[in-house]
Amino acid sequence: MHEFVSFNHQITSSQKSFLPVISSAAFYGRGIFTTAAIFDGKPFLWEKHWQRLAENARKIGLDLSEFSEEAIENSLLEIVAKNKLANARARLTFFDETASKIWRNESKSKTSFLITTANFRAVSENFCLTVLPFSINSKSPLAGVKSCNYLENILALENAKANGFDEAIRLNERGEIASAATANVFWTKNGKIFTPSLETGCLAGTTRRFVLERFAVNEKTAQIMELEQADEVFLTSAGIGIIQVSKFQEKKFSRRLHELAQILKPQMESSGKKY
Question: Residue 83: which H helix or E strand, with range?
Fold first, then answer.
């Protein structure tokens, strides 16, 4: 993480930003976030990120009335400039500072807002993928919400790395492919591109939408055997971009899709520059 952060529109050191210990954010992880890629000092797919933040806030009852899209966007550009960034990633987080009916407490502020920045995540050239038994509940009220209650995702990722893999596929309660621990998943078969439908409980990722808008992609429900029989598999997220999977479980894939990723990468960067 970089030295400076933006907390409630004020630039400060990351060591000087604090949340109330008695709050729904601290007690329950009640909050939402998004991670945006920064290209040439500008956020990529900003409108999609803001739209999802607003939708997620409504789903969990988080009050964003004190924040406007323009003000948040300006704060993002300000902290990117302060940290002297060209290509990096930024996490925008909204925290619920109110207490709940279970633990009542006086609070002057309803919602706090934080922007942190960091370099892009390092990605292995031989990206290995596994599948974990940590299922996603497609009927959960948090299904499809990028909330601060993110521990399941982190535990899934840590489990995969502890077992020698870079990421892990998570299935829902029906055994359908939903997503990776921290990314969306796509695969190809006989020249066609597939991805899990939102009905599986997967997150509506912004990079996922970017791909759907530019390619003919079949959104579907699928069992794990479809990944095992796929011609190629790749993951997408703002933090890693578009990554080809070299190995899923014991199956190794060709590098043919690497050309597709190279076609998409300059499109992503040019879109960020156009802003």
Answer: none
Stretches in the chain below the pLDDT threshold 70? 100-109, 255-275
SS (H, E, C) 97-113: CCCCCCCCCCCCCCEEE
159-203 pLDDT per residue, tens: 999 999 999 999 999 999 999 999 999 999 998 999 999 999 999
**Which SS3 state, helix, strand or coil, does residue 229 take?**
coil
Domains in the chain: ranges and CATH: 4-118 (3.30.470.10), 128-274 (3.20.10.10)
**Token pair recorded at residue 62:** 């988080």
Phi-psi region of 268 (alpha: psi -120 to 50; beta: other; left: phi over 0): alpha
User: How many CA atoms lie within 13 Å of 201's alpha carbon, on the beta-carbon side?
Assistant: 21
CB contact at 8 A, 147 and 32: yes
* Cβ contacts of 160 within 8 Å, gap of 6 or more: 130, 132, 166, 167, 168, 181
Provide the token pair at 83. Answer: 């940290």
Q: What is the pTM of this model?
A: 0.89
Element (H, E) at 234: strand 232-237
- Helix, strand or coil, per DSSP, at residue 170: strand
